Amino acid sequence: MTAPFILSPSLLSADFSRLADELAALAAAGLTWAHLDVMDGLFVPNITFGPPVIAALRRVSSLYFDTHLMIERPERYLAAFRDAGADLICVHAEATVHLERTVAEIRRLGAAPAVALNPATHLSAVEYLLPELDMVLIMTVNPGFGGQSFLPFCLEKVRTLSAMRRERGLSFRIQVDGGVTPGNTAALVAAGADVLVSGSAFFGHPPYKERLDVFHAAAATQAS
Ligand code: DX5
Ligand code: ZN
Fold first, then answer.
1. Annotated domain spans of the chain
2. CATH tag, 6-223
3. Which ligand lies nearest the alpha carbon of 12?
4. How far apart are CA 56 and CA 61, in angstroms?
5. Of 81, 137, 186, 224, which is most buried, counting CB atoms within 10 Å of its CB?
6. C-beta of residue 165 within 8 angstroms of C-beta of residue 171
7. Is 177 designated active site?
8. Is 66 a catalytic residue?
């Protein structure tokens, strides 16, 4: 029996000219989370969208906004993202010097705090903060673009983090992001991932309800 997981579709692979429709289609298909990839052209080479777009989407959707900030010094914009309607705010450990202060500020603002780690960043970057976090995001590609291939060595990192969580009696979620497909879903869930982000492997295969079922079936049948 595989543990249930949440699928958080990355809007990066959605149709940007119809984002409101895309969110409505996700909700109609039974999805409860939407992963919002914010990129600043500095922390990562790509640029996407910021608080004004999220605020506009907030007005038309009640999905849980899982907001992944791939921006330098995210502490400058936490209130703006919270005001825009972010439910969860995930910052990169590599992008902020005073990570504890940044995490505490996210909680003070009333959002769920999460920290993301690039593939090459050791778990020790977040180890002391685990009791303060609602989620840890293990990047399984180098952030910046959708459609990249999953980096297999990251699976071990998920396993190690999951063991750490168990040993310390903590309950933060473990999210994986990058190159997630039905083909690696079972392994990720077995390793301890609770929230799977999927961009190209989800939006590229409508209808969304059926695609969600494919991910769930993959987890159930391949794990043994
Ligand atoms: C990558 C982003 C991901 C990305 C995932 O920098 O953080 O959320 O959109 O896309 P896929 O699933 O296509 O790898
Ligand atoms: Zn992301």
1. 6-223
2. 3.20.20.70
3. 1
4. 9
5. 137
6. yes
7. yes
8. no
